[in-house]
Amino acid sequence: IKEMESLEDEVTPSDPSAVAPEDPPLDFSIPNNAPESHQKPKVESVPGLSDLVFEAKSSKDGAWYDVASFLTHRFLHTGELEVRVRFAGFRKEDDEWVNVERGVRERSIPLEPSECDRVNVGDLVLCFRETDEEATYCDAHIMSIQRRLHDIQGCRCIFVVRYDDDEVEENVQLTTLCSRPK
């Protein structure tokens, strides 16, 4: 990583406007077809960071997926940072460049039946959404809640969510919701 950072210092201008807008972003990545063992950067362990898990937003379908690993990074001519991610359960052919500010965050947490009282109107949640074409995890906001008595099978409350990407509203159960870390 230190070698890569020193290389970036040499080729990345300190003034982002110094690079013409038509120039492609600087790419310090390792090609997808490289052997797996060569794609893992050597990084020193930072205390406390090993417990963090992340999710990233795919540009292919707009859904959020767990990150298995961060393969490399690059700085765009705008100064923005992108990382190349391997999504959990996917192959190296599915690796994507993701903007860190807009598309990487701490992993959402599935809710237990006893935690339904933590969900409030207006909350941002990650919601499992199934359509005829695909099943994805999408950002949504809680629009209303119909609180119901729980039974032996768990929470029976109905949550009305509005998906952020298309503004469609849907009634869902708690089992489809994940909370955002605070």
Automatic annotation (TrEMBL):
GO terms for molecular function: chromatin binding. Residues 1-44 are annotated as: Disordered. Transmembrane segments: none annotated. It holds the Pfam family SAWADEE. Residues 1-12 have a biased composition (Acidic residues). Residues 51-178 form the SAWADEE domain. Signal peptide: none annotated. InterPro entries: SAWADEE_dom, SHH1/2. PANTHER family: PROTEIN SAWADEE HOMEODOMAIN HOMOLOG 1 (PTHR33827:SF2), PROTEIN SAWADEE HOMEODOMAIN HOMOLOG 2 (PTHR33827). This is SAWADEE domain-containing protein. It comes from Rhododendron williamsianum.
